[in-house]
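Late entry, written up from scratch paper. The run itself happened at the end of the previous shift, but nothing got recorded in the book at the time, so transcribing now.
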Amino acid sequence: MIEKELLEKVKNQILEPQEPQFQTGFRDLDILLAFVEKSSIITIGGRPAMGKTSFAVSIMLKFLEQNKKCLYFSLQSSNRYFIKRIIPTIAEVDSSRLRNNTELNENEKEKISAAFEKLSKFNLTIIDDVQKIEGIKEKIEQEKPDIVFIDYLQLFDTPATKQRNEAIEDIMLSLKELVLNNNCIIFVLSQLSRAIESRCDKRPMLCDLRDSGAIETISDIVLFIYRDEYYNRDIVENRGKAEIITAKNSYGTTSVLELLFRASIMKFLEPIIDYDF
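Output as recorded:
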């Protein structure tokens, strides 16, 4: 028989109004993912330049503001570069002015200083020296984070003795074991197959997940990012718009949500008008 204590806990979770534990900062996405539990793997997929890292950072910053402990595994860049990348997002200062060493005005300098001060108070660890699943396991077990971000799956070092799809499946199984044993949520960023580029409709599908069907199978949630302006730059009404496609949701329904992408600060925003792109 099922334990009465467990039944009561689940019943209260369903019937009693409560603040969602899973808050990404995007209202419609939070509604869709309202029943997400810890011990979940959420895959964020997209073709290059769609904004996978920017989307992950936008979500991460919201979690950090909720005093969540986050680990960010940056497999593609150094922690110094990653900090430089997220400061424009926090400060909301055009990233090109920082990259080009343009002389910043006083208002921008104040915003950047405030962003560094804010970042210093977050419970965030950026790790750039781990390329193998064993290293990620060790760090998670040491740090005991609430939320983990891995950027990105295809950059893992895998054994030369294994086929690529087998190695990725092993990594996904290890990640699932990690979330179960450490009671955390892992966001995994993933590249998608080039086959998308040959289709008329380039919106991603689950079959586009690159290297292994295990990514789809083991992930509890799969989110895809699609920005039509990347492919159709001449269509004015699509500028700054993004679709977040929930292709798999073990906790509820699937859907397509609209967000804004402000490229100058590499940040995703709620679809509110009057943003100057």
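Residues 71 and 143 are 8 Å apart (CA to CA).
(Scratch paper discarded after transcription.)
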